[in-house]
């Protein structure tokens, strides 16, 4: 292929300009999220060779289905491109491992070859959108990223190109924490999950919102392989859902795994081999559910959560249950009447705490969260997962003052898109009011189902 792109794996885009130039988010080894996830399709040999021979590799964010540390040894010698995430954790870590790293300044074009250049735009959720100009074509790689108003700018930009493609998460697999229980031990199925429209409707709406001519499904191809997380597979949608309900006058959806020749403006199917789901014991990944915390580990876990100042304004307590033993971390906030019990195996917990990757535990969906008291909207986001996983772990903003400064910097980066900042802030504020008024608990509707 002289000029074109390929889509393989979970979220990998391969750009060609007479040779492989760029590979994005290459998850090329079997496991992610403490072994909970496995990729749903095998990467064909030809495309694997292209990934390994690409001159550049771009990582959108630190989740292990995008930046997979087991895959990194196979990428030695590549030039690593990263979004300009505050805190710079990923850049520092990769440089310490001997990688050549370039941090892409927001909204600047960087040439990679004669016909290819890239434009990156990071956000406060520690994710990013990558625009790739390939000749007179524009590829909009959204991966897991939320719009946050960027679609207005990108839609206007896309008008300047002959053809435009958007690659984005497509809502057929579970990519968030769902392992919630109420105080009576009943599994909670969030109402918004049950009422989700077909994926095709969401995909068409996103393509139109960004002004793209084509939608290419991405970031959606995994299954749960641990015996303690395999329950989540029943909530994943079949791949046919990607196309169901896709209706648009200005765009059309393409197959998920393709090789697109931009000179001929035509594509061929790659037809990667589906991988068989083989359930694996958590012990294969070092997790023994009967193993308790060691005495010197309890203060490390306590300190990890206590450093996130926002939790004290939102929770009375977090109860960490490991090996059947409870370890209660208290704030005693008389206004909250709210707590969490997190039941989790010791090995994964301590890895998450020591390496500050707690969000990986949430997304793995083998950790069980029991919600105590008044919650809205019946999950841990944004007050827990965002403040712990995104602001504290990745953004290195632990105290409320540091979070305000962190958000202020991103707000300046999005200064012409006011909806980016004030609409999410308003939504969170209204949610906080509801949480503090038990009389409004009827707004936190959800359904329960036995498991």
Structure, explained:
- The structure is a single chain.
- The protein is an alpha/beta fold.
- The protein folds into 2 domains: 3-176 and 184-282, 4-Layer Sandwich (Metallo-beta-lactamase, Chain A); 284-448, no CATH class.
- The protein has 11 helices and 25 strands.
- The protein has helices at 45-53, 89-96, 150-158, 191-194, 199-210, 298-306, 346-355, 358-364, 385-394, 400-413, 419-436; strands spanning 3-8, 12-17, 20-24, 31-32, 37-39, 56-58, 79-83, 100-104, 109-111, 116-122, 128-134, 137-143, 163-169, 180-181, 188-189, 214-218, 222-224, 252-253, 258-261, 266-269, 317-322, 325-330, 338-343, 368-373, 447-448.
- An 8-stranded mixed beta sheet has the order 8-7-6-3-2-1-19-20, covered by helices on one side.
- A hairpin with a 4-residue loop joins strand 19 (258-261) and strand 20.
- Helix 7 (346-355) packs antiparallel against helix 8 and helix 8 crosses helix 9.
- The termini are far apart.
Low-confidence stretches: 424-429, 431-451
**Rg over CA atoms:** 22 Å
User: How is the CATH topology of the largest domain named?
Assistant: Metallo-beta-lactamase, Chain A
Number of helices: 11
**CATH architecture assignment of the largest domain:** 4-Layer Sandwich
Going by CATH, the homologous superfamily of the largest domain would be Ribonuclease Z/Hydroxyacylglutathione hydrolase-like
Give the count of structural domains.
Answer: 2
């Amino acid at each position: 292929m002289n000029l074109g792109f390929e889509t393989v794996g979970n979220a990998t885009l391969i750009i060609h300009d007479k040779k492989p130039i760029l590979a994005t988010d290459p998850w090329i080894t079997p496991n992610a999220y403490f072994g909970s996830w496995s990729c749903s399709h095998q990467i064909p040999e030809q495309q694997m060779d292209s990934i390994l021979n690409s001159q550049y590799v771009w990582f959108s964010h630190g989740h292990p289905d995008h930046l997979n540390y087991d895959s990194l040894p196979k990428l030695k010698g590549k030039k690593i491109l990263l979004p300009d995430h505050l805190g710079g954790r990923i850049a520092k870590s990769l440089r310490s491992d001997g990688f050549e790293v370039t941090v892409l300044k927001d909204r600047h074009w960087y040439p990679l070859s004669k016909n290819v250049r890239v434009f990156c735009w990071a956000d406060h959720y520690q994710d990013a959108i990558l625009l790739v100009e390939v000749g007179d074509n524009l590829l909009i790689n959204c991966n897991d990223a939320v719009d946050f108003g960027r679609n207005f700018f990108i839609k206007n930009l896309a008008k300047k190109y002959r053809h435009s493609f958007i690659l984005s998460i497509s809502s057929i697999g579970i990519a968030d924490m769902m392992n919630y229980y109420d105080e009576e031990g009943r599994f909670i199925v969030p109402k918004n999950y049950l009422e989700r429209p077909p994926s095709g409707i969401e995909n068409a709406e996103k393509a139109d919102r960004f002004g793209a001519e084509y939608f290419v499904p991405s970031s959606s191809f995994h299954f749960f392989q641990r015996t303690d997380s395999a329950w989540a597979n029943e909530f994943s949608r079949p791949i046919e859902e990607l196309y169901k309900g896709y209706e648009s006058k200005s765009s059309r959806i393409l197959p998920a795994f393709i090789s697109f020749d931009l000179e001929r403006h035509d594509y061929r199917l790659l037809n990667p081999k589906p991988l068989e789901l083989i359930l694996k014991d958590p012990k294969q990944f070092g997790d023994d559910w009967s193993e308790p915390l060691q005495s010197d580990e309890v203060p490390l876990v306590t300190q990890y959560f206590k450093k996130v100042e926002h939790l004290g304004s939102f929770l009375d307590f977090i109860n960490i249950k490991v090996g059947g033993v409870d370890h209660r971390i208290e704030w005693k906030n008389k206004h909250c009447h709210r707590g969490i019990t997190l039941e989790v195996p010791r090995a994964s917990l301590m890895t998450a705490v020591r390496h500050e990757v707690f969000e990986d535990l949430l997304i793995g969906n083998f950790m069980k969260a029991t919600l105590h008291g008044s919650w809205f909207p019946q999950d841990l986001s944004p007050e827990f997962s965002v403040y712990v996983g995104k602001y504290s772990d990745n953004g290195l903003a632990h105290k409320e003052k540091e979070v305000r400064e962190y958000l202020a910097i991103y707000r300046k980066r999005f200064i012409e898109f006011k909806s980016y900042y004030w609409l999410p802030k308003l939504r969170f504020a209204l949610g906080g009011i509801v949480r503090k008024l038990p009389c409004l608990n009827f707004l936190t509707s959800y359904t329960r189902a036995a498991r």
